[in-house]
Specification:
heterodimer; A: alpha/beta; Rossmann fold; 6-stranded mixed sheet; 7 helices; 36% helix; 28% strand; B: 433 residues; alpha+beta; 54% helix; elongated
Chain lengths: 220, 433
């Protein structure tokens, strides 16, 4: 069963059509790499798959639930239960520490903070992120990226949507990150949909899809 | 999902939510606190001042009565203005014959110098005085049951001359003599029962040929009647003294208090009086004069309070909304990560509504305390004020609660509308820099 099923997705910004007739099926546990030129709509696609952008045509099913017409609480519930996000610009709260940023969604969503803290500590440790009182505004870009990844993973999602999650990392850190993601993916069986450019990362992907002319094309 | 958060969760959420924003948040709450404080302070003091003015300007004149006074100005022995129309027996009789008039109670000054001696606060005290003869009307029916208001010189060996003291005179004493001589101020209740010696025919500035008359006197009541400038004693006694010292003088009344058969006849009686060239005052007329002054002061205080309230409230709303604007991104992040709206609303409700309520209540309490302190300070500075009112601060619970409620609703309501708009904004737009 597909964890994500997108059919005939359309998205335009005024006169500019970005996505047109896009279909996508994502299976549990698979690593799907999305490539494409800059500005082709990769981030837009992730925003639609993450139910952040609702102004699209076509249908989107997540965990067999059609997102069209869902209420705000239902959409929030869907995101919380099934999706994890790593944004291109991280979207961390700069005054909070790495740990606080990672557990923030759990705190506000009524989850078990103790479990989230333990999970966060484990992931942050594996990613070599400082867990002291340093606010994330003072961390390096690479560290902030790893914090963003940790936050995306802390709720043990079924799908992790990652927009260039290693863009700010050196080769060694990138390797560490994707080693961890591979391990966790095997343990938790979550699907990873990531926009990536690094050839080293692309080699790890189960499938590589190129976004071109508004649709996804499998790269052999 | 659990809708309600535990207090520890709320504490942690607020702790994280406000990190880096505490100053903004405290500032916005401080504005609400200040707005509430100023509102309560000005309402309390404003109403207190209004009460004070009411007290100074009020009259005991009943609706069915008309007070007739001479057009000239003469207070007892001192004639300050001459040439005006005086109240003679003829005029009194003429008015008594009107079918509209139920009764006339005359007042008469003792046109002889007089001196009062006594003890005030353990110190010997004397002063020149003016006696005014009044009827029992000044006392009212309830006091007349306890006070024998008839008095003649032959009673002086067996009884005290009953005195009704003008509270206006008491205010003048407090504001002038007591203030300048560091004496204690006197309250209406405090002077009741005070005994003194009254001498007629002699004062510190005048001395008649006849031997002076000295009687023992006691203050039996006080009156707020604006027409009693002097020390009121029984009418017959003053009449007797005027005849004794000035046998050739024609009887002239200082005032007539006309009681109409019906209150609606008062305007017609006023017309009759004014035709004779005398002045007529009614409760309505006095009230109108007082209302103008009280109204002006009240309007000024209200305008000041409204200006302060509006500026404080707009600042509070501005800072609350500015604080929320700064949180658009943070709200967007939380929404993007799946935080339910009702959780955010709960945090908002606690953060803004509950804390604003606390801030405003604390501000109101401090406003009350400040108003109370200001009242004590002002009253301690002025015996006149102290004699007139118990407190310059009034705390009408209903009005204050309404004021606080309106402020709370206006500020948090505006903030909530803004918050609601943020929640309806697409996440992608909230996350946009």
């Amino acid at each position: 069963m597909s964890i994500i099923e997108a059919r005939n997705i359309e998205r335009s910004f005024e006169d500019l059509t970005v996505l047109s007739g896009l279909d996508l099926d994502v299976q549990k546990g698979e690593f799907l790499a999305i490539v494409g030129k800059s500005g082709v709509g990769k981030s837009t696609l992730l925003a639609i798959l993450g139910t952040h952008d609702l102004d699209h045509g076509g249908t989107l099913k997540i965990a067999d639930t059609e997102t069209d017409g869902l209420s705000s609480p239902a959409l929030a519930s869907l995101r919380r239960e099934y999706l994890g996000f790593v944004f291109q610009d991280f979207y961390l709260l700069p005054a909070l520490t790495a740990m606080e940023n990672v557990i923030l969604p759990t705190v506000f969503s009524g989850g078990i903070v103790k479990n989230a803290t333990a999970q966060a500590l484990d992931i942050l440790d594996k990613l070599s992120v400082r867990t002291n009182e340093t606010p994330t505004s003072l961390l390096s870009r690479g560290e902030r990226q790893r914090v963003a990844v940790a936050r995306g993973l802390v709720n043990k999602p079924s799908v992790l949507l990652a927009d260039e999650p290693s863009a700010s990392l050196d080769e060694e850190s990138e390797k560490t990150l994707f080693d961890l993601l591979d391990d966790l993916r095997k343990q938790q069986n979550f699907a990873l949909i990531a926009v990536v450019h690094s050839k080293a990362v692309l080699h790890r992907a189960d499938r590589i899809l190129e976004l071109k002319d508004g649709a996804l094309h499998e790269v052999v | 999902m659990v809708l309600f958060m535990k207090s520890s969760e709320v504490k942690l959420a607020l702790h994280l939510w406000n990190r880096g924003h505490w100053m903004d948040y405290l500032f916005s709450q401080g504005m609400l606190f200040t707005a509430s404080l100023l509102l309560v302070f000005f309402i309390s003091i404003g109403l207190g001042v209004q009460n004070l003015l009411d007290r100074f300007l009020s009259s005991d004149l009943p609706a069915e009565q008309v007070r007739v006074t001479p057009s000239g100005m003469q207070v007892g022995f001192f004639q300050t203005e001459t040439g005006g129309m005086e109240i003679t027996e003829e005029i009194k009789s003429e008015l008594e014959n009107s079918p509209l008039v139920e009764r006339i109670d005359p007042q008469i000054y003792a046109h002889v110098p007089a001196l009062l001696r006594g003890q005030l606060g353990g110190q010997p005290y004397y002063t020149d005085i003016t006696l005014e003869g009044v009827t029992g009307e000044f006392l009212g029916d309830s006091l007349l049951e306890d006070i024998d208001w008839s008095y003649a010189l032959e009673d002086s060996s067996s009884r005290f001359l009953p005195i009704i003291l003008s509270e206006n005179l008491l205010l003048l004493y407090n504001a002038g003599f007591a203030e300048s001589n560091n004496l204690l101020g006197l309250t209406p209740d405090g002077v009741l029962g005070t005994e003194c010696i009254v001498t007629l025919g002699r004062s510190s500035i005048a001395d008649l040929d006849n031997p002076p008359v000295t009687v023992r006197a006691r203050i039996e009541a006080t009156s707020r009647n604006m027409n009693l400038f002097a020390i009121g004693v029984p009418f017959e006694f003053v009449d007797e003294m005027n005849s004794l010292f000035l046998p050739d003088d024609t009887r002239r009344f200082s005032a007539l208090v006309i009681t109409a058969k019906r209150a609606e006849d008062v305007p017609e009686i006023v017309r009759l009086v004014e035709e004779t060239g005398l002045r007529a005052e009614t409760r309505r007329g006095i009230a109108q004069k007082a209302e103008i002054l009280v109204g002006a002061v009240t309007a000024a205080l209200s305008a000041l309070a409204a200006a302060i309230l509006l500026s404080a409230l707009s600042s509070a709303i501005h800072t609350l909304v500015a604080d929320l604007k700064n949180r658009r991104f943070a709200l967007g992040v939380l929404m993007a990560l799946g935080t339910p709206h009702n959780r955010l609303a709960m945090i908002f409700a606690f953060q803004i509504l509950f804390m604003s309520f606390i801030s405003m209540v604390l501000g109101a309490v401090l406003g009350c305390l400040l108003a109370w302190g200001a009242s004590i300070a002002l009253l301690s500075l002025s015996p006149v004020l102290r004699a007139a009112v118990d407190s310059l601060a009034v705390f009408p619970a209903g009005w204050l609660a309404t004021g606080i409620g309106v402020m709370l609703a206006a500020s948090t309501g505006t903030a909530y509308i803004f918050f609601g708009r943020i929640l309806k904004t697409p996440v992608t737009r909230l996350l946009r820099p």
